[in-house]
């Protein structure tokens, strides 16, 4: 009986993870569609993506699920990129010259691919 209850709990958590992930992806695509149709710009677009990604992680935390480090980092980076772009637009120039964001984006992507390839299965 105890094993059956444990299995149900694990299945319930898996179902909740799938629902949260699906809702997050759905909100992300809806936001991208709205941002594209309204041509609101990269700053607000990136900021919205970051907020959605961070909200999914907050939802995971709220329901007692493991927070995904990648989602947390990527959400923070997207939000920071949005703020960066908004500040750049307001100032009329980049806060740090030299196109730092594309370089950081490439480094983050390489780090994610490398971590996926080097990660051991548990």
Based on the model shown, name its key terms:
0% strand, 4 helices, 122 residues, single chain, 82% helix, mainly alpha
Give a description of the structure.
Helix 2 (42-62) runs antiparallel to helix 3 (69-91). The protein has 4 helices and no strands. The chain has one domain (2-118). It is mainly alpha-helical and 122 residues long.
Short overview:
The chain has 122 residues and is mainly alpha-helical.
Major sheet details = none
Q: Tell me the Rg in angstroms.
A: 18 Å
Return the structural class: mainly alpha
Q: What is the count of structural domains?
A: 1
List unreliable stretches of 5+ residues. Answer: none
Keywords: Membrane, Transmembrane, Transmembrane helix
Secondary structure layout plus pairing:
Blueprint: H1 2-38, H2 42-62, H3 69-91, H4 100-118
Helix pairs in contact: 1-2, 2-3
């Amino acid at each position: 009986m105890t094993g059956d209850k444990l299995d149900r709990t694990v299945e319930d958590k898996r179902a909740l993870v799938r629902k949260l992930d699906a809702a997050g992806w759905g909100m992300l695509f809806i936001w991208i569609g709205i941002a594209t149709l309204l041509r609101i710009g990269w700053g607000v677009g990136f900021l919205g993506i970051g907020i959605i990604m961070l909200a999914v992680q907050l939802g995971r935390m709220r329901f007692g699920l493991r927070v995904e480090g990648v989602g947390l980092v990527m959400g923070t980076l997207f939000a920071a990129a949005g703020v960066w772009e908004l500040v750049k637009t307001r100032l009329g120039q980049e806060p740090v010259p030299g196109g730092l964001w594309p370089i950081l984006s490439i480094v983050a992507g390489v780090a994610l691919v490398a971590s996926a390839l080097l990660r051991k299965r548990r």
